[in-house]
Amino acid sequence: MKGLFWAIVAGIWFMPLGATTDSTLRFTNAIYEGDIRSIVLRNANSGFNFPIMMLGSQDAELELSFDQLQAERDYYQVSLIHCDALWRKSPLVKTQYLNGMGFQEVDQVRFSNGTLTPYVHYEVRLPNGDMKPKLSGNYLLVVYRNYDETDIVFSRRVMVLGSKGNVQVDINQSSQVEFRQSQQQVNFTFNKTTSNYFMPNPYRDMTSVVLQNGDWNTAITNLKPQFIKNESFIYNQMLGSQFWGNNEFRFFDIRSLQTAAAGVKKRDNIGGQKHVWLIADRAREFDAYANWKDYNGRVYYDNRDVPSSRPAESDYCFVHFSLITEPIDKEVYVYGEMSDWRILESHKMYYNTESRQYEAVIPLKQGFYNYMFGIKNSTTDSYLDFLPFEGSHSVTENNYIVLIYHRNPVLPYDELIGYGLNNSQPNR
Question: Has this prediction a pTM greater than 0.70?
Fold first, then answer.
């Protein structure tokens, strides 16, 4: 059994981690190349890991970075596809929503230095004069190879805000008695501030999206205002905008591969690769809520082994996860930004009857990681159930993002006219 286990581990490095088996473009966050890792898309100025920028602002800049596990560089370009509020391709042509050539070169390239794993690190800031959005709304960012738009490497969702007002977001315990201790209710109000912006039928033409911690898999979509008072559009949905509070994310620190840190049990080099074993986890379903600072499922890539390290100086290693519990008849996964907020076969756990625990071995770059354990209740589910291993509390700290869209009365597209952000523990 042990021989088989290590044979499997040896093959993980080259498996398509998170890559789709279908090369057809999907209007979601997706990876189409198996050697693409550690994608980061964030606001270049604030570092906020939610890809939204203000239309026409001089500070509206996103920073995209990723690694490719190979020794030679490739040549990549970035383009944007305009989408509607529900992430379907809009009927607009590229010249209607983009200025410039319609694409951008991925122009910053670094080769890994001092690492056991060879890779190429790519970075680009966008937009620039070669490609700049004209309209607000949803955009699918597509990275492709050698000017061939059919040779897609990965895609990311991007939002461009053309603000017509402000969004007030309030988070409370669920209004339903049976969920008062386990769910959080999100109410919000869009206050229109642009008096000459024409909205003839807001109940028909307005829609909204609510996200917990930026996770699109659990997003609540297509909410309509409950009522309108003057220039305020009020969304008190009661039963329509409730989320499981879940729990604070688990975490581990592999910013150093030389010294032990939070969550790490031991380290070793095996077969020319670095391995890290995490302290074994246990189910928290029946545990009382414990308040600690997490990063709401995020990953922060960093290397503390090299002074003033750069992104191409951080190494990759095999991270060994374990969850002590009895076996269940459902699939168990490791989940968070580390899994690209997706249910990935590469992050699936397998039960070890000898150690009586679920185990997974996942290759990851040096950094600080948040994660949870979830189960897939059926083969058709596109989301995980975290309750059996994590429990759920209405007091858990979560970020909530609200996006307000309006169908343009002239052109057939959805404008993004409002954006709001709030935390369930604003004083923490």
Answer: yes
